[in-house]
Design a protein that fits this description.
Number of strands: 2
Distance between the termini: 44 Å
Radius of gyration: 21 Å
Number of domains: 2
Strand content: 5-15%
Shape: extended
Helix content: 40-55%
Largest sheet: 2 strands, antiparallel
Strand order of the largest sheet: 1-2
Order of helices and strands: EEHHHHH
Length: about 150
């Protein structure tokens, strides 16, 4: 099946600077998606897996505790990509106002990631749309406090 390109680039101005923006092709695609055979089976398998995950979530006594640990672990891993030396235990010690075993600036950087994510999630719950069209957002402002952004 031959399908045309998924979109095109259009010239635009953003903040007085010339940029190229990707404009996706309209939906539904032409020709329509073929969801028969193995694709249909894969889609059904994925749907069942999502259903199992959703039902397991109902069994958690306090999903916020799970999310608390997950968000912090993700912040540690994201920060390590940028070269910080903080670990999850260092971050938890910092949040308890204890002395972490790594440079203070590294733990503050990870803490800024956590603060940015929590702020962003709160804004989404308030109805702010998820987009990347705002050049200066509260998400980036929270992480930029350390000067690394």
């Amino acid at each position: 099946m031959h399908r045309d390109s998924t979109g095109h680039y259009a010239a635009s101005l953003a903040g007085g600077e010339a940029v190229r923006a990707f404009v996706p092709a309209p939906l539904p695609p032409t020709p329509p998606l073929d969801l028969g055979g193995t694709r249909q089976a894969a889609l059904e398998h994925a749907t069942l897996a999502l259903g199992r995950l959703d039902s397991i979530g109902l069994l958690l006594p306090d999903p916020q505790r799970f999310l608390y640990a997950y968000v912090r672990r993700e912040a540690v891993l994201s920060s390590q990509i940028e070269g910080t030396q903080s670990s999850l235990s260092d971050l938890l010690l910092f949040e308890l106002d204890e002395q972490p075993g790594v440079p203070f600036d590294d733990v503050v950087e990870v803490s800024n990631y956590v603060a940015a994510l929590e702020h962003g999630m709160a804004r989404l719950r308030e109805g702010l749309p998820l987009c990347n069209s705002r050049p200066s957002t509260p998400f980036s402002t929270a992480t930029a406090a350390s000067g690394d952004c």
